[in-house]
From TrEMBL:
The lineage of its organism: Bacteria, Pseudomonadati, Bacteroidota, Cytophagia, Cytophagales. Residues 21-281 form the NADP-dependent oxidoreductase domain. InterPro entries: AKR, Aldo-Keto_reductase, NAD(P)_OxRdtase_dom_sf, NADP_OxRdtase_dom. This is Predicted oxidoreductase. Keywords: Oxidoreductase. It comes from Dyadobacter koreensis. GO terms for cellular component: cytoplasm. SUPFAM superfamilies: NAD(P)-linked oxidoreductase (SSF51430). GO terms for molecular function: oxidoreductase activity.
Length: 282
């Protein structure tokens, strides 16, 4: 497994925008099933504001979260944005109801996603726009055509992909530059191991979604002693492992709790030994 010690807690997205590798994923700040408005809007705004105050300068959202409500919430809580704050969003999912996700790569729909995100986030340029999923019914060349146009028009700075394999990354790169990949990955689920290494070699960011998932609980025995030695939680150790795993990994753990937010951010202070990292990696 390719790895190197955590020499830096920052990463240059597109070799340009320097961001802190421990960011925040806003998906949980929605209603049941990632659908509708968040139950406690004032608390949700406070979580976002606390994240930025604590040094988070990379926030991940999507047109599909709500849908729409999550992006509007971020603007409501944080606009005008602090200098250096990078907001990444996504497009390409239709949401019929709670926990229902239907890929939609229709170019007209993608264009509507982009224009809607610009309006809801109150920005002239989206820092990072990601294709949420490839639509098997529509050629990706057609899906990404309006994205390429938006890049040329200055409406999108950088483009990323989500839940893709190497072949799909290469397909997309024939159309426009790709700076990031967001796939499911955590200590307990490493099905995309090769994508972590592939993106690292290519100078692309790798953004694990569900960076904690059920991993820490299932791996409690292995994590327990290491967490105890560091006077940390198992979740913090799981995040520290991801930071150590590869220098191109950007973390976006989400939470509705200010206390849990600060707990997650403290994971950046934990330095695992080579022995601890290898033990967790087995």
């Amino acid at each position: 497994m390719a790895t190197e010690s955590r020499a830096s807690l920052t990463y240059r997205l597109g070799n340009d925008i320097e961001i802190n590798r421990l960011g925040y994923g806003a998906m949980q700040l929605t209603g049941f099933g990632v659908f509708g408005e968040v139950e406690d809007r004032e608390n949700a705004k406070k979580v976002l504001q606390e994240a930025v105050s604590a040094g988070v300068n990379f926030i991940d959202t999507a047109d599909a979260y709500g849908p729409h409500f999550n992006e509007s919430l971020i603007a409501d809580a944080l606009h005008p944005y602090k200098k250096g704050l990078v907001i990444a969003t996504k497009g390409g999912f239709t949401r019929p109801g709670p926990n229902q996700w239907v890929p939609n790569g229709d170019p007209k729909f993608i264009q509507e996603n982009i224009e809607g995100s610009l309006k809801r986030l109150k920005v002239d340029t989206i820092d990072l726009w990601q294709l949420h999923r490839f639509d098997p019914k529509i050629p990706v060349e057609e899906t990404l055509a309006p994205v390429a146009e938006a890049v040329k028009a200055g409406k999108i700075k950088y483009v990323g992909l989500s839940e893709v394999d190497i072949k799909q990354i290469e397909q997309a790169e024939k159309i426009l530059p790709i700076v990031s990949v967001q796939n499911l990955y955590n200590l307990g689920n490493r099905q995309w191991e090769e994508i972590v290494d592939y993106t690292a070699k290519k100078g692309q960011a790798f953004i694990p979604w569900f960076p904690l998932a059920s991993g820490p609980q299932k791996l409690a025995e292995k994590l327990g002693k290491i967490a105890e030695d560091h006077k940390a939680t198992t979740a913090q150790i799981a995040l520290a492992w991801l930071l150590r795993r590869s220098p191109n990994i950007l973390l976006i753990p989400g939470t509705k709790s200010v206390d849990h937010l600060h707990e997650n951010l403290k994971a950046s202070e934990i330095e695992l030994t080579d022995e601890e990292f290898e033990q967790l990696s087995k």
